[in-house]
Amino acid sequence: MKRFFFLLLLLFTRPFYGFSQTNILFTNPAAEQVITGNYDPQVYTPAMILNHPDSIIHGVLTTVNADSLLYNMIQLASLQNRNTGADTVSSVKGIGAARRWVHAQFEKISNQNNSRLLPGYLQFDQLICGAGQHRSPMAVLPGLDTSDPSIIIIEAHLDSRCEGLCDTACVAEGVDDNGSGTSLVIEAARVLSRYCFKHTIVFLTNIGEEQGLYGAEAFATVAENKNILIRAVQNNDIVAGVRCGQTASPPSCSPFGEVDSTQIRLFSYGGVNSPHKSFVRYIKLEYRENILPQSTVKMSVSIMTPEDRTGRGGDHQPFRQHGYTAMRFTSANENGNANVSDPDYEDNQHTSRDVLGYDTDGDAVVDSFLVDKNYLKRNTQINVNAAAMAAIGVLTPEFNYSLEGNQLNITVADPAYEVYRVGIRTNTYDFDSVYTLAGNSGTIHLDMAGIYYVSVAAEDSNKVESFFSEEQIVIVTGLKPWPSDSGIELLPMHPNPADEATTIVIYSRLLNNTEALLRITGSNGVLVSEIPLIIQKGLNEVNYRHTMGERGLKVVQLMVDEKIVATKNIVFTR
Ligand SMILES: [Zn+2]
User: Fold this and answer.
1) Which end of the chain has fewer CB atoms within 10 angstroms, the N or the C?
2) What single DSSP character describes residue 501?
3) Cα(209) to centroid(ligand 1), Å
4) Residues, beta carbon < 5 Å, ion ligand 1
5) pTM across the whole model
6) In angstroms, what is the span from residue 63 Cα to ligand 1's centroid?
7) Spacing, Cα 114 to ligand 1 middle (Å)
8) Mode of pairing for the β-strands spanning 398-404 and 407-413
9) 338-388 pLDDT, tens per residue?
């Protein structure tokens, strides 16, 4: 009952943004011309054009910098209060200092890149916490092909808050909410400004999110009024925190104190044929294929069903409401549900406690962090990679299909490329499999009766995908249902007994790209190793090398969906 009461309170205390912003304008006319597609790309073409996806991906892997990200968060925190109604005159604290600092970072990045990045502000009038005029810092990286002038936006909100919605005197460092997202946007601008893209990329740090998504609403409104085409919006809000609070808006973490630095949640609106869900799948696929294989710490990218956490919202929503494709990145673990009116609320979100971390040994240096710069780095890589691929990707194809029994025949209409990708999903919003068609047609065998959602993307000669097409629904009837067993098994390992290494063999009747986990433990149950796997249909081989000197009996467990589906023993003799 108590919980229900506070949920209602939360809904009622969240203000509406029914009052429309007026006098919305871009302060940099050159930036406005680029965003609206009225410019000469030659003006922004550098002598040396870096635009090959391999070099961009290499840049994403090697130049996104955890210390730059940490530095940005520290600088933003030092300004003490970034409430939208806070001081605009001081150079050392308040929202004015914060706006100018972000703008100065964009200027610095521009100076390092032949002035190709165009810094400016989106300015609008609206009474928020006593202030009448507002500016969201932004920067525009012009695309070099104006035949399709649609833009990509990486955004975060710059403002912070304490318990009081308009408390401009409290210390509101807002490190995770949302110094983390702002830091990410600046770092994304720094990394991407070295490269050239077909599409324009906009880096946006919004004002007035906490009082009602005003800054994002202003941008989405002016975009609609000026017929600005937006390919996709990536919103980042709370993207560096790793510790689970006592409360967290569902669906979220538990238990209290749990740390998770390897999972990011992607929220988006809609279900079947939602362009927002399709874009989220694209982000995950591009991460899995471009970044994950070369990363030492592998991120699990969770596609969430709702548009946001229960009772919560963010700056992706105004864009979606104005008809644009938009999604939100948020940490797996949040420190609080922002229900600051609860007298028992002890978590950090929306309080003065949203800080970098704690100094536990009294030497005035933070040594216990609430945010993780390396986690933020990995989230930045996911963002930058997706935006970059979306900014060089080709046109989305249309396709036709026919079904004969369990054979799905795909034909791409008006083929322009040699390779196409076919994404198939069943029970979740994530792809079960992504097939590659060499040529403009092909046949896919569907193993079980059921409903399949099928979409197709084009792939250019540099292996860059377009966005996926609208989904078509394919219903397969009359086939055998799933076998009652798990459909996956461990075959004998060879060699066994082994000296120091063996090959673990897995046979799968499941769809391609099933996520699985191998756990190797001692005979006493103590964990020796965990190996995440992507299992293909048929035979899969995993080379396993054990630590020298760890001889004896080991137990190999195969897990799918967190369930143990097969177990086998192996003996190491060295
Ligand atoms: Zn936020």
Assistant:
1) N
2) E
3) 7
4) 177-178, 237
5) 0.82
6) 26
7) 33
8) antiparallel
9) 999 999 999 999 999 999 999 999 999 999 999 999 999 999 999 999 999
